[in-house]
Design the sequence.
């Protein structure tokens, strides 16, 4: 049996350690203060913020950031600068880094992203969320009617910390059957400030929903969710309705801040809630 992945850069970042009083404070600031701003104003502020990471001076952040955040000092060796660049010209280049060689895994089903598996459960069993005084079901995240997602599907939410790889890949080979852009807010994504409902931001934030029908005719629902400081969620090349995608083909890229939710026809086999997953690891 395959073991749970030993995450190479942060083995301690797997639990919710923030005290409850501090989490309540952060939640108030995120939802009741920042979240009370109109969505278009959040977007403007976030866009201005992200421009700082496109400035040349921001490339000097990369080395100390690596030193502070990765115990593996060769971490960056497996990646390359984006868009054919030879060097990382700014921090945004580091944030949108690409694999030199994609992970190789013969498994049919793989994780589409890297990060903390902060929420998981059968679609019907998970909590409803109160969003702006509106009680919402998990299906709302994916922009579909409540009864469309089969009851046996399993919901997962992977939180991508700023230091994680920020490209989302297809978990399966199949055909894209739907793409939906959902405008919304950009409240803070960090799950430990929403201890009772770590997926709350996915109900209200801006996101792209992508449905992929696998070779057995089952639909995998993905929701690619933005957070504060997200300037853009950009779809990958040739990602459109009707397109065939291969397992691990790039679906989208984030420009700062993100979460990836998925409703899949089977449960993760090797990972539990509050453990790390990696791109290409067996689902």
Sequence:
């Amino acid at each position: 049996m395959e073991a749970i992945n030993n995450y190479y850069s942060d083995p301690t970042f797997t639990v919710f350690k923030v005290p409850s009083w501090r989490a309540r404070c952060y939640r108030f600031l995120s939802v009741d203060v920042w979240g009370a701003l109109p969505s278009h104003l959040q977007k403007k502020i976030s866009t201005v913020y992200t421009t700082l990471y496109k400035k040349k001076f921001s490339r000097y952040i990369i080395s100390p950031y690596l030193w502070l955040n990765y115990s593996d000092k060769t971490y960056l060796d497996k990646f390359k600068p984006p868009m054919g660049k030879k060097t990382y010209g700014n921090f945004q280049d580091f944030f949108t880094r690409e694999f030199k060689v994609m992970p190789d895994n013969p498994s049919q089903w793989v994780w589409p992203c890297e990060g903390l598996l902060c929420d998981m459960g059968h679609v019907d069993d998970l909590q409803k969320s109160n969003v702006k005084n509106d009680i919402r079901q998990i299906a709302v995240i994916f922009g579909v009617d409540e009864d469309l997602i089969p009851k046996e599907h399993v919901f997962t939410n992977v939180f991508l910390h700023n230091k994680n790889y920020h490209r989302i890949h297809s978990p399966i080979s199949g055909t894209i059957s739907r793409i939906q852009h959902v405008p919304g807010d950009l409240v803070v994504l960090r799950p430990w400030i929403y201890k009772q409902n770590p997926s709350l931001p996915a109900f209200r934030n801006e996101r792209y929903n992508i449905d992929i029908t696998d070779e057995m005719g089952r639909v995998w629902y993905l929701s690619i969710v933005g957070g504060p400081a997200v300037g853009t969620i950009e779809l990958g090349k040739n990602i459109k309705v009707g397109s065939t995608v291969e397992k691990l083909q790039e679906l989208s890229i984030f420009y700062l801040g993100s979460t990836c939710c998925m409703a899949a026809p089977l449960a993760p086999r090797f990972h539990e809630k509050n453990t790390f997953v990696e791109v290409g690891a067996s689902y």
Helices lie at 20-33, 39-51, 62-69, 91-95, 200-204. The two ends are 13 Å apart (CA to CA).
